[in-house]
Design brief:
Blueprint: H1 4-24, H2 26-34, H3 44-65, H4 73-97, H5 103-110, H6 113-124, H7 131-154, H8 163-189, H9 191-201, H10 203-212, H11 221-249, H12 251-254, H13 261-273, H14 279-297
Helix pairs in contact: 1-11, 1-13, 2-11, 2-13, 3-4, 3-9, 3-10, 3-11, 4-8, 4-9, 5-13, 5-14, 6-8, 7-14, 8-9, 9-11
């Protein structure tokens, strides 16, 4: 029979796993919403504004329900940076990239996000990182570059990085900087309130943005469902499950579940998008995840500059 402590930890693991599944489906759902170059659906601009507006509306209800205080002047700066990185930069760059590459391809590139976030924290928050971390960060980045070069050559684009890969790298950088900025105020505000305030602060931009970029052509019902998913779940509810899981199950144990996210994306892309399982993609995803695992173990030392 489980003790209350064990039950709490198990619940945390399941909530963390639910969060990882939600985030793992974000890439296939985004591609369903935007469509491809040959069969476009919603513009990446509209998907970016609309998903944030959906999350902003839900966040406003939540913040009013819990009577959350307004952010202080010192908190608004980091929240604004998180807004630029996570609400605008990441989804916009991701949406444009996914019109040109498969969700499985994007999963390999974006699997570097945990390492990029740790590197951004070391840089912006003046945290010392062991040499081993930087070695594995460089190795993971090299693996992504090699994968991109091989994939471009395989697709007949020549032996070079594609524009979509550049967009994906930009998305990773934007998200990592946004996460670090949000982390600066998480201790004082609470993680759920941070993501909610970020979405609410973006409403003056996202609401008119969604209105001005509203699709004029007919959109498939599956694209609207995908937009609803990334707005309600990926942008908002998924963070509640993930952060609550980290709190209940412990960050050390639950955060390791994030290593499963690229594989969830690759597997989900098969039924959702009709993509095929590719041995090269799976292999590189496994190698990159291994570097992320090793790099995260060496990310921080107790001391700080």
């Amino acid at each position: 029979m489980n003790t209350p402590s064990q039950h709490r930890e198990n619940l945390g693991l399941w909530l963390g796993f639910l969060g990882v599944i939600i985030f793992g489906l974000t890439l296939p759902m985004t591609r369903l919403a935007t469509g491809t170059v040959d069969a476009p659906q919603m513009s990446p601009w509209f998907v970016t504004w609309a998903r944030a507006a959906l999350a902003g509306g839900l966040s406003l209800v939540y913040l009013l329900a819990v009577r959350a205080p307004l952010p202080t002047s010192s908190q608004r700066g980091p929240l604004l940076l998180s807004l630029l990185g996570n609400v605008i930069g990441y989804p916009l760059l991701l949406g444009w990239a996914l019109r040109h590459v498969t969700a499985s391809h994007a999963a390999v590139i974006t699997s570097l996000l945990p390492l990029a976030t740790a590197a951004a924290a070391a840089w912006l928050m003046h945290q010392r990182a062991r040499l081993g971390f930087w070695v594995f960060a460089a190795l993971g980045s090299a693996l992504v570059v090699v994968y991109s070069l091989l994939r471009a050559s395989q697709m007949g684009h020549g032996f070079g990085l594609t524009w979509a890969d550049t967009l994906l790298v930009g998305a990773v950088v934007a998200a990592s900087l946004g996460y670090v900025a949000g982390a600066k105020v998480t201790a004082s505000m609470g993680a759920e309130k941070v993501i909610s305030w970020v979405c609410v602060m973006a409403l003056p931009v996202t609401l008119p943005g969604a209105w001005l970029t509203w699709p004029e052509a007919s959109i498939a019902p599956t694209a609207w469902m995908a937009l609803l998913y990334v707005g309600v779940l990926s942008m908002w509810a998924g963070f509640f499950a993930w952060f609550r899981g980290l709190s209940l199950g412990g960050p050390l144990r639950v955060s390791q579940l994030q290593l499963l996210q690229p594989f969830i994306t690759i597997l989900a892309a098969v039924p959702l998008l009709g993509e095929s399982l590719d041995a090269m993609t799976l292999g590189f995803a496994l190698l990159v995840v291994l570097t992320v695992f090793m790099g995260r173990r060496m990310a921080n030392t107790p001391s700080a500059r």
